[in-house]
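Quick check before the chapter quiz. The format below is the same one you will see on the exam, so make sure you can read both the input and the output lines.
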Amino acid sequence: MDVRKAGTDGNLVLAGVLLMLLGDFLFSLNDAMGKWLVASFSVGQVLVIRSLGSFIILAPMIARQGSDALFRIERPPLQLLRIVMTTTDVGLFYAAVAYLPLADVMTFYMAGPIYVAAISHFFLGERIGWRRWLAVFLGFAGVLIALKPSTAMFSWPSLFGLCGSLAFAMTLVLGRRLRQTNDATLVAWQTVGALVAGLVLSIGNWRSASTLDFAAMLALGVVAGSAHMLITRSLKLAPASLLAPLQYTLLIWAIALGFFFFGDIPDIQVFLGAAIIVLAGLFIFHRKNLTDTIPKEAVAPDGH
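Here is the expected output.
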């Protein structure tokens, strides 16, 4: 029985890993599609139609849990802040990829978990010591290298990517504060926020779209919603400490899709910055896993 149970648990973990990898691929595909679309349409218009596409995925989930669940939310001020942050994250991401290669923008976003470690220290009271603080500073140094230190590093597209990644990190932190709210409710309200922001931003910037373009913008929402569901499910099947490093495959897909669809090849500074960010992030995941799962006396003190 124990052997059978161990085999079943192993299959569930493997399923979780595969779902995470597929979810990351779909997110990367969504990013590439978004870059292609914002070359011809305003960010606001893309946000509007993308949001409508997301409701294709959300509608069955909302129907199953009952629409009244949408209004049973914890901490409304934090919910509103999360909606603002998620909308800022998505909007600035599309604004950045309109001008920069996918891999460049994704490099900024790969620093999100590093920002989370720093923000959580103050916002969630999750104490981190000198080892993880050192990794945070190294990760931020990687971001600065990827920004290509020069007068161009403060160009609008670079600032869009940097600020968008900070908004993304805040979204992750707020999601942990609001963990009692179910996923369908969280995603539904952030989709409403993106829809409203898109309507405002598209005033005077709306242009007619072909059937193919309209379908592609709807598909953005469907693909992103499917990716979110896959990743949420994967986290229920396998330990987060195992799955978290797999999210760095987003960077690999960004390089591959950027080259395949747009002919973009990251320069050496982006590769170097990305390598530093990934190593710093992996160390933070590893250190957190140690301090969470191993008795404190068995772990070298983090040095608060």
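If your answer matched, good. The chain has one domain: 2-298.
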